[in-house]
Amino acid sequence: MSDAPRALSSRRQFLATTAAATMAASVPYTFTASRASAQSSAKPLRFALIGVGGNGTRTSPVGKKFADLVALCDVDANHLADGNELLCDGKADLYADYREVLDRDDIDLVQISTPDHWHTKILIEAMRAGKDAYCEKPLTLTIDEGKMIRKVQQETGRVVQVGTQQRSSFNLFNKALAVISDGRIGKLKKITVGIDAGGWSPEIPTAEVPEGLDWDRWLGPTPKMQFRYLADAKRNYTNGHTHFRWWYEHSGGKLTDWGAHHIDIAMLGIEAAGQNSDPISVGGTAKHDVEFKDGMPLQHDRYNTARAFDLNVHFADGDVVMNVRHDVDNGILFEGELGRIFVNRGKLTGKAIEELKANPLPEEAIAKVYRGMPMVGNDRDAHWANLIHSIEHRTLPISDVHSHMKMLNVCHLAGICCRLGRTIHWDQATEQITGDDLAASMMSRPYREGYEIGS
Fold first, then answer.
1. Neighbours of 226 (CB within 10 A)
2. Count of domains forming the chain
3. Helix axes 401-420, 259-272, angle to 10 degrees
4. What is the mean pLDDT of the chain?
5. Domain containing 23 — which CATH number?
6. pTM confidence score
């Protein structure tokens, strides 16, 4: 199959339309699901789901409110069969190879819900094939992969929405950002990001690959390894499917899983306060259940990502520090010179929030944070509606690859810090780790033969 890109809009045109749309979006607009698909034409967008198990099955029903789901792709035949019945009444076109999906000219959009280690390769090839995309977080497995994605997005002008739907949460996270933007808690001094502890497992023995699963294809760009599986009375453990998050070969553990959500909002809070969010260092401590040498796990028979962590991120602003830890409530605590607020997916609290009844936020503070995003149902609905609007108007979505990359780099730096057990220093201007050759080498990863980017 050819990797040659189709005719795509230039980056200059893309930025021009983005600038125009940003000016037009000075106040929030209402964008209902019934209007989403037909905003600019009577023909709905058609999308394919690549990665049907787990999160793909949970989130694609939201996409179906805004576009037609016509194709499913997975390396596990069981996921394909189950997903087809659950999502498409048995009527979807089914594929084991995502490249066949990308070759279809009648598919406008792909939702990428594979394990993390596949995101970059599939997304880059999708953009080169002329597809817009919704890609689950975290966008990448390494820092350098973000640079690859950014380059291809600039070359192709494709619209890519990253699945950090907290950016589209109006009553919680965006309200918190608006309160900060309006100066209600003053200049930020400290942010505490609570992320739950990482996964634990006993020793997991090798096992027969389940019937229907193409294990070699599931591994894709990552190193060749044997399939492992163990079940006890309470749960099962494996190095495949939904448990991939606990293996550095496939993911970054909790720091890229929930960090992609909460560190994202924390850094947006720094920007909302008018302070510099450029990271300069990440240091602290972490606990793993396996031994490491030069940042690489020495055991491969149990989960190897960080189970516990207490990390401090310093920024160019100099006045604010972000503490990321596992042993506090899940959420984000913003502490400023005038007060503090706490936000997570269930609540938004603090004196500044209580005072909103008597002293509501001005429209300009709301508009500054919401950036004209559609106010639709819950955060997932709003996130998809924003994507569809961005596709139809060729504008940057609320969770674009450029802003996501800056935040995700902090998550990756935190992971490198945990694996090496030392402070990592970062130059935002050059996007390079400084003064540590071994740490810098971990900004990229080798790809298994036949699964290189672009192959």
1. 12
2. 2
3. 120
4. 90
5. 3.40.50.720
6. 0.90
